[in-house]
Amino acid sequence: MRLFSKLSVIEEYNTIKHLASLSEKAIKKTHIAEERAIYASKCKNSFQYYFRENNGNRSFVKSEDHQSVRKYVQHEYNVKLNKALTRNKHILEKFLEQYDFSGAEGVYERMPEAKRVLVNPIIPSDEQFIEEWKKQFPGGQNTFPEEAIYETENGESVRSKSEKILADLFLKHGIPYSYEPHVSLSNGRTVYPDFALLNLPQRKTVFWEHLGLLSNEDYAAKNFEKICEYEKSGIILGDNLIVSTESESIPLDIKLIEKKLNMFLL
Questions:
Q1: Helices within the chain (DSSP H only)
Q2: Distance, first Cα to last Cα, the chain
Q3: How far apart are CA 119 and CA 266, in angstroms?
Q4: CB within 8 A of 119, min separation 6: which ones?
Q5: What is the pLDDT of residues 11-41, one digit of tens each?
Q6: Which one, 10, 14, 61, 222, has the greatest CB density within 10 A?
């Protein structure tokens, strides 16, 4: 895995910035003219609350007045949260300004070729990583007879028009992929997912299954069982397993496919 993903840091920064804005609005919404210290003690299965007065004494708050306590405690939370978020926002701003995301990873690539050939890099380049990944997941392992052949833009033969569309989309977006590699599950069964793909920014393998005959009950039941076996082997739907679907009445949704590519692979 790479040291840092600039995109992930920016996403974290934007999330913190958004939450800080929400907390600022919440502070204004509570309309606290003057903050008051709240003390609490536990009595059996409930809490008792006290205000600290200006003279330092505590005044007991009756249960019917707990709503007023809630207002002050909510304001206290909003203020503390805003301070924590603002502090982290400033830290990330400095981090993004100063951190060289390509510094360590680019050391090898910036070396002259005559020296690179003599080096075994600790952090492999993208090209080296992709090359080793493809060795781990060689394609074309499924020996089941092919009923139809469709040729992809990358020159592979696939079994369906939808698989061709998927492969061509992977190629278009520069996503390394392997068609029908073999994968051994924890129960000893060998399966051949339609695609193994590489999320290069995270250097993570993701498997893709296309279910093209969901209107067929036997087909749907068989593939549901297969997905369950995947998950028992740590290949989890929505994490490192993606599924696309279609049926006789519902065609392949290209926009949804593009959305999944952006979510899980780019």
A1: 6-30, 66-98, 106-110, 113-116, 126-136, 161-172, 217-232, 254-264
A2: 14
A3: 29
A4: 108, 111
A5: 899 999 999 999 999 988 877 767 778 878 8
A6: 61
